[in-house]
Specification:
The structure holds 2 protein chains of 2 kinds. Chain A is an alpha+beta fold. Chain A has helices at residues 6-18, 23-29, 34-48, 57-75, 88-104, 108-112, 122-134, 139-162, 169-187, 193-211, 222-240, 281-284, and strands at 255-266, 269-272, 275-278, 293-300, 306-313, 323-333, 336-339, 342-345, 351-352, 361-367, 374-380, 392-400, 411-414, 417-429, 439-447, 450-459, 467-478, 481-484, 487-489, 503-511, 514-524, 532-542, 545-548, 551-554, 560-562, 570-577, 583-590. Chain B contains 10 helices and no strands. Classes of the chains: A alpha+beta, B mainly alpha.
């Protein structure tokens, strides 16, 4: 008789049990092996009865959307592009170098020295930089030069932004290559403490700069952008000894800027302002606490997953209200700009989206507290009276549907209107989570028939879902309806038709798909003196003088005020500067019905 | 969202009261029925793709979660596998094994790639965090309660032992399919399952003592 091995008997029993036989039936066939078999068979059975982990419905749906989209592409014969033709790369490098050497005698290299990435001479500039490294044999010096060259790329990007030009891929790939080469050299040289510290600081600054520039990156450079941001992020982490890195795929959907209350969801995952974000504590340390207000720039993967790249918590008593001021530049120097009678500092970190000149209308995002107002960004003013091709619209209403969806959605419905959320949209959810039913203010621009959100502010106020407030440019009348920044509104009875190009504020209600105005106010008329616009936190109310953001505002008898003056609430002011430098309010809208500073953080 | 439901041959081991012969016959019928569906999906028929997706996304998610212990990483892997499945579907040929064996082989390869990528990036393997101090005691307790400590115990097994437990006893594949998924011979799977069950028993016995 053939003696069967134990593993063979075990396998037979396991297969039989898998097909419906009981453990006891199988054991009865092998009574002499039963004692050894029983625990293993019972264990296999126990493993088979382990409750399955069920995926989250939204994640399954999101992945299905990707699969369905891809299937549609494949049905139409659209295949993914194959890998890059890598052998062309060395050829291109050699060609560039030959070009650089040939050009050296003719002064082309000299001419290329100040060229920008959109210039034909830029290749020569990069090639001559490469050639310079041939003659450097000391690794530390080479890393130092590479960091200088990487910094030069930052200056080039800033110069392009100031000229209002998109950032092309060549400067991003050059920045990434130089950074990575420096990081590779310094990875083996721990003794180069100063150089490593410089690389860490520089990479962090460059990463933050790029994260603020999504809108300025040309469409064809998005792949290089993702590569550059992930390289900078990983360089920074590598230099600081942190463990978790990101890849370009993690940025396939761009970035999301959001601030709001932080609540833990599970290990390494937090809900910030109602949106789920992976926050790796090996990268950011234990700085995030439940209930604290956090500001996050997160990479958005193709499946909508958010991964924090940059995280800061807001100090108690210093709410991140994001004071925004729009007005004409009264004076400008290298380190200061004056708008609305206020001096605002310009630092090397200020992102200038235009070349500053007196008289220009600009919008400045201001940060800073006791140390004075500092401009973080300066860009051309958005809401301009007159007939513009892309008029801005501010729209307040209740959020409808599941917009947070863990950060995966890019279409939000607010007060019945659909808004596209892009990687450059900032979401301020300090006053409440992003969720269905929350009241939100969406500042948007009409592009290609769609309303593209630039900034979303969740308002503390809980209002009736059908209550709408909007402000925008009056574009004319059609069949008795006002066209305001692309939206049709039925005017309120007796309302005087404003001149085309005026900026109007309207309180309205929504009935089915109709917007019915209850009250309308003209904020700005074409041809008149342009008002100053200020959005900030109400810091103090002393009689008819309010402090909004960093400015003192006189709210006199003639000013139209919507909402109660509440310290700690956000307010939008339209006004004019008087000869004594005071901002005289013409219209004030208090956005919140209560302070947005958390009680524990009240000064 | 879902239009067609597909009963999987892989669930046959959980049926109570079926005779082994009946279960075998039913399993082969299911394999052939699924092959029919796969042929429709190879022409990118949306309903067929949806049915396959509905069947395999939760299975791959469960498989990935058992290996990684991380919700988001498991969701990412499941999503990635579903896209890879779609891209490679045209090249799939029926060779008598359940379609699931092919899908899980993709998942296994993706998992190996993921571990390799993480090692290259210098990341800590997320599966290691499961029993580490990074997880809160509360979440560890919840996991242990939900899955009867099995998942935690699996972390103490070798990768191959863990694979064989999950694929054979949780996902219900036969030896041939497990061998195909893991790139091993059928005979090797028999030995491996014996060692895996013995190791698992040792770990669980120690933990429960």
């Amino acid at each position: 008789m053939r003696i069967r091995s134990f593993r063979s008997i075990l396998d037979e029993c396991l297969t039989a049990i898998q097909q419906g036989e009981s453990v006891e039936t199988c054991l009865s066939r092998y009574p002499r092996r039963a004692e050894r078999l029983r625990p293993l068979l019972l264990l296999a059975q126990r493993a088979g009865r382990t409750p399955r982990v069920v995926p989250r419905a939204w994640a399954q749906q999101t992945a299905w959307d990707l699969v369905r989209q891809r299937a549609a592409d494949l049905r139409q014969g659209r295949h993914r592009p194959r890998g890059q033709i890598t052998w062309l790369r060395p050829v291109a490098i050699v060609a560039s170098l030959v070009l650089a050497l040939l050009a050296a005698g003719g002064g082309t290299v000299y001419a290329a020295r100040d060229s920008l990435p959109d210039s034909p001479l830029y290749r020569v500039k990069l090639a001559s930089e490469d050639a310079r490294l041939w003659f450097v044999f000391d690794d530390a010096s080479k890393a130092d030069i590479l960091l200088d060259q990487s910094n030069e790329r930052t200056d080039e990007i800033l110069a392009l932004i100031q000229r209002g030009k998109p950032v092309p891929s060549n400067v991003l790939s050059a920045l990434r290559n130089r950074n990575r080469s420096a990081a590779d050299i310094l990875a083996d040289r721990p003794q180069e403490v100063a150089l490593r510290a410089r690389m860490l600081q520089q990479s962090e600054g460059q990463e933050n700069l790029l994260l603020a520039l999504w809108d300025d990156i040309s469409e064809s450079a998005r792949g290089q952008y993702a590569e550059a941001v992930s390289t900078l992020h990983n360089t920074r982490l590598g230099a600081s000894g942190a463990a978790v890195a990101i890849g370009p795929d993690d940025l396939a959907g761009g970035v999301l800027n959001i601030s709001g209350l932080a609540q833990p969801v599970t290990d390494g995952v937090w809900r910030i302002g109602g949106v789920e974000v992976r926050v790796d504590d090996r990268t950011f340390g234990p700085q995030l606490e439940s209930g604290r207000t956090a500001k996050v720039v997160a990479a958005r993967g193709a499946n909508g997953r958010l991964h924090a790249l940059n995280l800061s918590t807001i100090e108690p008593g210093l709410p991140e209200a994001g004071t925004v001021v729009s007005g004409a530049v009264e004076s400008v120097t290298d380190n200061e700009i004056m708008v609305a009678g206020q001096r605002i500092a310009i630092t090397p970190q200020t992102l200038l989206h235009l070349k500053l000149q007196e008289g220009q209308r600009v919008q400045i995002t201001v940060s800073g507290g006791a140390g004075g107002a500092v401009a973080s960004t300066v860009e051309p003013a958005r809401t301009e009276a007159g007939v513009t091709s892309a008029p801005t619209l501010a729209y307040e209403g209740a959020i409808e549907g599941n917009v947070s969806a863990q950060g995966s959605t890019n279409q939000w419905v607010v007060g019945g209107e659909s808004f596209v959320i892009t990687p450059s949209t900032t979401v301020d959810a300090q006053a409440g989570d992003v969720k269905a039913g929350a009241r939100a203010r969406v500042e948007s621009v009409s592009q290609g028939g769609k309303l593209v959100a630039q900034r979303v502010v969740i308002l503390a106020a809980d209002a009736q879902p059908q209550t709408i407030h909007l402000s925008g440019v009056f574009q004319g009348q059609r069949q008795g309806l006002w066209l305001v920044s692309g939206l049709a509104v039925e005017p309120n009875t007796g309302a005087e038709t404003p001149p085309v190009g005026s900026v109007v504020a309207i309180d309205a209600s929504r009935q089915d798909k109709r917007l019915l105005a209850r009250q309308s106010t003209v904020l700005e008329s074409p041809g008149q003196d342009r008002p100053v616009q200020l959005l900030g936190l109400v810091g103090a109310v002393e009689g008819d003088t309010w402090t909004v953001g960093f400015a003192r505002v006189h709210v006199g008898q003639t000013a139209k005020v919507s909402g109660a003056p509440i310290v700690g609430a956000r307010a939008l002011v339209w006004g004019h500067l008087t000869s004594d430098g005071t901002l005289e309010a013409a219209y004030v809208r208090v956005l919140d019905q209560r302070s947005i500073i958390p009680a524990a953080q009240q000064p | 969202m879902w239009a067609i439901t597909l009963s999987s041959p892989l669930d046959s081991h959980q049926r109570v009261g079926a005779t082994p012969e009946a279960a075998r016959a039913e399993a082969s019928t299911e394999v052939l029925r699924e092959w029919d569906l796969v042929r429709q999906a190879q022409n990118y028929d949306e309903a067929a793709l949806q049915a396959l997706y509905q069947t395999y996304y939760p299975k791959i998610y469960n498989y990935a979660f058992m290996q990684l212990g991380d919700v988001q990483a498991a969701e990412d892997l499941a999503s990635d596998v579903m896209l890879k499945l779609l891209e490679s579907l045209k090249s799939y040929q029926f060779k008598g094994l359940p379609f699931g064996a092919w899908v899980f082989r993709i998942a296994r390869n993706r998992l190996i790639d993921l571990h390799r990528r993480r090692r290259r990036r210098g990341e800590v393997d997320l599966s290691e965090t499961l029993s580490s101090t990074l997880a809160s005691p509360q979440s560890l307790a919840e996991r242990a309660l939900e899955r009867g400590q099995l998942q935690v115990a699996l972390k103490h097994l070798t990768d191959e032992q863990r694979q064989v437990i999950v694929l054979k006893f949780i996902e219900g594949f036969d030896n041939r399919s497990v061998g195909r998924i893991m790139g091993r011979r059928e005979g090797a799977i028999k030995s491996l399952q014996h060692r895996a069950l013995a190791s698992l028993r040792r770990v669980l016995y120690q933990e429960e003592r």
